[in-house]
Amino acid sequence: MGSFDVADLLGLDELLSPEDLAVRDTVRRWVGERVLPHVAQWYEAGELPQVRELARELGSLGALGMSLEGYGCAGASAVQYGLACLELEAGDSGIRSLVSVQGSLAMYAIHRFGGEAQKREWLPRMAAGEVIGCFGLTEPDHGSDPASMRTYAKRDGSDWVLSGRKMWITNGSVAGVAVVWARTEEGVRGFVVPTDAPGFSAPEIKHKWSLRASVTSELVLDDVRLPGDAVLPEVVGLKGPLSCLSHARYGIVWGAMGAARACFETAVEYAKTREQFGRPIGGFQLTQAKLADMAVELHKGVLLAHHLGRRMDAGRLRPEQVSFGKLNNVREAIEICRTSRTVLGANGISLEYPVMRHATNLESVLTYEGTVEMHQLVLGKALTGLDAFR
Question: Which class in CATH covers the domain with range 12-127?
Answer without folding.
Answer: mainly alpha
